[in-house]
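[Meeting: bench + compute handoff]

Bench side (C.D.) handed over the final construct sequence. Compute side (W.E.) agreed to return the predicted structure before the next meeting so the bench team could plan truncations. Sequence as handed over:
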Amino acid sequence: MKSISFLLVFLLLTPGCLSMPWGQGNDSMEINCELEPNDPSCEVIELTEDDCLFNEIFTGDICRLMLPPDNLDFGEESLQLTVGINMQPLTPSFIGDGPENWLVNPRLPEGLSLDSENGVLSGNPDVESVLTSYTIIATNSMGSSVFIISITILPAPPDSITYSESTIFCTIQSFCGIGMPEVSGGLPVSWVVNPDLPEGLEIIDSGEIYGIAQQLGDSNHTVTASNDGGSNSTNVRIITTHQSPENLYYSGHLFQWLIGEEIDETPTFDGGEIILWDIEPPLPEGLFFNLESGTIFGYPTELHAIREHYVTATNTGGSITTSILISVSDFSPENIRYEPYVLELFVNENLSNLTPNWSGGSPDSWEISPNLPSGLNLNYRNGIISGTALILQEPLNYQIWANNSGGYATTQIVISVVSLPPNEISWPESQYALKSNHSVLIPATNNGPLIDSWEVYPELPSGLLILDNGSIEGIPNSRTDWQEYTIWANNTGGAVGLNIWIAIHDLRADQNELLRDIEDADWGGWSSLILPIGEWSFPLGRDSNDNTVVSASHVGRGKMVGYGHESWVMQDHDFTMRAVEWACGQSANIGLAYGAGFDDWEDDLKERGHDVFLSVTPDDLSEIDCLVDEFWNGHDDGDNSVIEEFLLDGGGLIMGGHSWYWSYSNSDVPHNYPGNKISKVTGLLVSDTWGYNDINFELPNSLYTPHNAIDAVLDNRINDVDLSDEEASIAYKSISACSQILTLDFIDFWAPLRELINSTGWTVIEYSTLWSSKGHDLGEDPVSDIILRLEESLTQNLPAQELPVHPSHVEFPGSVPSNATRISRTVTVNGNQSGLPSDFGYSGARSNIRMSTGLYAPPGEVITVSVDQETSELGFSVLIGAHTDGLWGKDIIKRHSKIYRDWAIENTTNQVANSFGGPIYVSVPAGSLFGDLELTISGAIRAPMFVLGETSDFEWLYSERENPAPWAELISDNFIMTVPSSEIRDLDNPSQLMNWWDSALNMEHHLYGFEPWPRVERAVFDVQISAGWMHSGYPFMAHDLSVPDVVNYTYMSENGDWGMFHELGHNHQWMPSTLPGNTETSCNFASVYLMEDLVGVQGHSAVDPVQRESRMRSYFDDGSNISNWSVWTALDTFLIIKEEWGWDVITETLSLYYTLPTDEIPIGDIEEFNYWVMHLSNTTGYNLAPYHAAWGFPLNQQTYDALEHLPVWVNDSLRGDFFVYDAIIRDLDVQNTTDDTTDIFWETYDNGTNVSLVFYYGVSDVGNQTLGWTSSSNWGTTSVGNHSQTITGLIAGTTYYGRVQAFNEESSVWSGPISWTTNIN
């Protein structure tokens, strides 16, 4: 546009006939400027900046119109600057063309400027300025732009602060300070000191510090001077000291004191307080220097030549020293005496340091006349007489002198030397508990002179005599309490009396005393067995299962009674008070233990003449004769030691309590249960086996006492003494109750029993299958059963290096080839094992998880397990042996009951073993997050082990299956089978087999809906198991007779195994969703599902349609009684659902239970039935309440109401064939009423079985009956859905009532009433 404008101006100003070329019409000729560059029309006119007007901008090509500046901005709207400090220049920004002029109003502060060329704001402010707004205007020819900026100029901060001194020295209570500091930079307006100045000092506006110091100290302070521009600091130190001490004096300069003289010499001084006193050299012995006052005090005890001593008094202001002269002189010795001063010594008797006493001064030397008897000596420095008299001597006087520098003193003594009296006589113990009617010999030892005669007081118990050598011998024939006897030994030299305690125990007499005429009791509470394991312990009360639940014991000189439950101690029963009298005595001081809950017994005990002390603790048992306490107590080791000593010294103890509940959350009952920590002393042990609460107080057979039973068994097996069947059975029960819990460190119990095993040899149980009658017949020979129990206790408790090779291992689990190589292998197993939630109640949900190692422990051989330190502290174990079912509940056992051994891994190197041998597993507690566990196992042999996906069939065929161990494992991701190696030596297709089993387990997991299943299930095959043909749990157990089938793929794929699927189904049963009576039902979901969908067969005759129909017919003909609804009948209920909707609805319903909140988990049978129906109905989308009610489910109205939004399932196979359903009519209503008609509407929610409807109506409501209604309308059969009928012939202006009867051949159901009023014409 610029070029066109310029051209127009040019043409208008050109004279002559020139005209615009485009005005020449068609006659003009176009000029080619390349060919004719000199043609005037080809001239190019070039513009320069000078060609532009004042309001134009030259762009290099053209002149364009200038733009005004706009959006002026300096980037900051507010500045805070400091005097003397250059500001950061601010350069303006804007849009449009550059300003030609810059203005600011008001004028900028001194030192700041706005550049008139470019508008830059810069400078160094010279003076302070308050916040002020400045308007900056940028202009050019076309316009202007404005920017407002606020500026504050702060004063310069103080730059430095300097006091004349860095330290202020003050004297307490005196004026001190420092002058005004020199300050550079800005002037301060305030001063701050941190921390605060010492009390009495202050800082003023000039920075000067002064005042009168009120306290001692040495402190550092930061002084800060500030103004609006900033601050600066300096440090000062303030030291406040005392006034220095002056004029230190004692009452004299020379002090001459006597030994033993009382001294108290205090100095005087001027000046400030003294904080430190000192004296050099030290004062004579017996004198003391008070470091707070300088006082010299005491009673000098040693001679001290005159000597100068320097006393220094010091405070923070300085010190002062003065000197004094001190001497201590001696007294002459006085009143020399020896005690005794008449000595009668025996030949060869040692005289140990007969030391003199005196008053006055201390002797320096001693003299005696005449010389002492041979062997005796006088110490001439201290006057002590000592030595051994060697020859006889008549009494003789001796003169003794004590001398020192102050003088001497003298005394006399008399010495005679005579023959030795009887001495060095002893017995092995100081007290003896002897058994009545048993031969006794208590040998005496005499290492002294010969004894002429012996005397005893009081007389020894009947049947005992003292022999010429002092030994006690005989057969005591009557019970006696503890008595202290003094035995006198006499000879010509004199006599000596020695004390010995003796009691004669007759446990049978104790039992008679305690149980005579006592009636049986029923006291409530589940008790623990109280095992009388001590030598002097005995049973008293037995429960209905002949378990000992009340026992007593002699403990040293004391007595104890133990009850199997704490509530029994204070029962209102003749026995409890008799027990008190036996253990505590008559009119005893009885202490009721603190916190034991026995305080309410106080009145009863007082009525019996006892004194009672409450809240007694072991800290002080001095005032009581007897303590009543709980076994389950809070005593520590110190308390237990006190109680033991209390008993041993003659105290009584009554305790009650049970340990079975304690054992649920604790371990090692014999050692860790509180009441058992004293059991090795008391002889009473609280077992974790529970007993009943009905107590038989008849006198028990003597063999219920374990020590009697042990003696009887030893006599039977070693000395061939007969035991009747009854006696043997009692002995078995008595010993077994103890051997099952007592560890081998209870030596008094175990020593004779180990002797028995060594004498009789170990029991071999011949292998035989389940169907054979061979085996060990439990109960046929109770003594053999006792030995079997003892063998189990030994093989379970002996340390690894002491375990024998049990000969029965040859029969089961089997021998290890003699040439099998012992190897060392490092294995890694997964230590992250969650286990199953505990509501999988039949699965062994929280059992330790067995992790296979592929190794086998030879019988009785030590296996070394090595781990690192961190791993040793995790808390897992090594299990040796796969067969963990106990068999003591069987009549005939095919193997020993316990042939496995579990070893805690607690050290970096661990020795483990099993007398029977077995597979080696790493046993990981459920819930562990240990990560990978690495163990090195040495001394084991290889076992056949196939791992699906890891072991190839080739490796299996040519290597693994020939490994020498007698047991093998077949492993997949979901299932492990432990089987005899003999059964897999010919297995050629392990991958095919374990794939099939893996699929089976996957199907079970999916069916029950808990996925992913967090545990690999195990099946162990055994010669005999604890219950049934198979049983669920971890591991799932089955008989070895099943092995040939389960390792045969062809057989399994064609026939399946209902029982295996059934037991594994048990492992999937979730307790809240397992309906009452369904323990053996819902596990069969798995059997039906796998037999049909995996194997393709029916699987069990019980699910045959004919049997099902017959069974259901019987059930419904009997009235569908829910108490008879179980196993197969219950399975029919579920199968009908499955046949309608498939397994998915059952799976989905089961799955709902796994995540139910705690408050929604059904409790009790009624809730369980109702919750199941609601959940299953919601899953299917149909109201299944009528269907389950037909089966007899006890459904409540809440369930019916909760499901009424769903359509009723009216097509179930029960209807009309097995069960007649009632109809359900709802939403009965009246509409469209005229003067003589009305319409009745209703919904048939359930049309029931062969139901017909009749509508009864009239002018009054006569209830649910057909009689009395004036009219009716027969509506016939009905279908599910909404319906209506019209009632005609009504009378105008009349109120009517109506009800619907739905009836079939068995019953009728009424709906209504409804009412309506016809219109008036």
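W.E. noted at the follow-up: The chain has 24 helices and 80 strands. C.D. will use this when planning the next construct.
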